[in-house]
Task: structure prediction
Amino acid sequence: GPNEFIRIVALYQNTENKTISIYDNLKQIFSIYDYTRGWEFNDKTLIDNIKVLPQNKMYSLVPYKDQFVVNGIFGHQMFALLKPDFSIMGTFGRYPGDASLLGSYEFYLKNQTIIHTSEDDRCFVAAGFYNDWLSFYHEKAGKLVLQKEYFSYDSELSTMTMATGNATQSTCVETDKTIRAYRDICSTGNYIYVLYWGVPALQMYNDGNECYVFKFNYEGELCKSYVIDGLLSTIAVDGNDEIMYAVTLADNPQLMRYDI
Result:
């Protein structure tokens, strides 16, 4: 209903404890439901509502073992590792480019990331929407530590902050210099696949565009690149690393299959 969820950005099923978990990014609430009691999200099926990180701003999250990894504003770091109760275990991920707005909402808007954990939790990967920062992290002594990163350009988004009474509001606008960079990440037991556009935002609906799928091993080393005619919005690869499925970016999206 309109007063229950505002902006859902993550939904996870746990088949071991028979739960569905939903993260509402605007309310900053993580809700856990028991689907053995029914498939409606209401008081009957609700197990717990957890208010997340009142001292920080968190945007999206991915499960990692029995914990979570989130992106957001964490001082000089881009990511945080959370305990099951959503308290912070540690922060990590220093942006390698222009950090003049670091710690501000404007900085986050310019440097939004896609985040992904592999199914076996061997690797955490982050990729920039508007910059080409791509970073791979492995766990060492209970911390996620940078394994390898790639970076060549900063975001060209234009940001502004406006005061409204006692509150401030930040926004961002694409310019003729804005590049739309990484769009999706998926993984198998052997490799990590990253979808990259590298297309100017104002030219994304032009004819003749191409996109790229990069295949990395778990050490973050590039193994192979694929050039795709047109733009894809999302990708998935089968467990044998033989077939890639993708959805095209179009008014009438198509489901595509590629032998890789």
Remarks:
- Residues 231 and 250 are 8 Å apart (CA to CA).
